[in-house]
Each structure stands twice: as structure tokens, then as C-alpha cells.
Design a protein that fits this description.
about 120 residues; mainly beta; single chain; 6-stranded antiparallel β-sheet
Amino acid sequence: MGNVEGGNTPETWTWYPDDRPDTWGMNVYVGVRAASVGGVAIQTVQGYTVDHDLEAIAASLSVPFWGNGYDEIVVETGPELGERELADVPNAYSVVMTSFPDGTAIGAPVNVGVARH
């Protein structure tokens, strides 16, 4: 698995498999844990940032929030890519916000509509 040279810091990380997509068919992932990187503000298309209250976002989207430090909330979803593996979740690339004990991260693309092994 490779990393983008100079692109991985405690605030950001990027990876891509060296030879093929990973288990979930992904070939790149970008994660951000800072409100800005290199002076550039980071937000999703819908305007979410790592500074937003993830519990409030979950409530506004009517999704569960457990508050255990590892919640993953889908905040944006692209077009469906194919047949669904999970009945209630689209097989599509999404932007997710994830809570960690020490803060929030924004990550994409994540296909939460495929069974994760």
C-alpha cells in the first residue's frame, strides 16, 4: 500500500493500494482531521467541517449516534454504483465523518453499502 509523498501528517492522510483496489473496491482514500491544511479550509460539499458537532449532525440526518468515540456518519452520498449488498444502504461512494476519542475526521470515498470484511 502506498502513501502520497509528503501528504501524510497527523491532520491528513492519503493512501492507495500499490497493485489493485482493496477489499471494498477502493483505490484511494483521503482523510482529514484538521479544519484547514496548508492554509486551505477543508469542508464537504454540504459545508460540514471537523469542527461541527457530530452528534447534532447525526440527529439532523436521523441516524444513530452512540457517543463511544467511533461513530461513522455518512454525510454525502454519490450515485449508486450497482446492485445493493445491504438492503437499506446504497452501493455508492460516500463522504463520512468519523468520531474518535480525540476528535473528528472527514474521509472519502467510503462505500458503506458493501459488506465490510
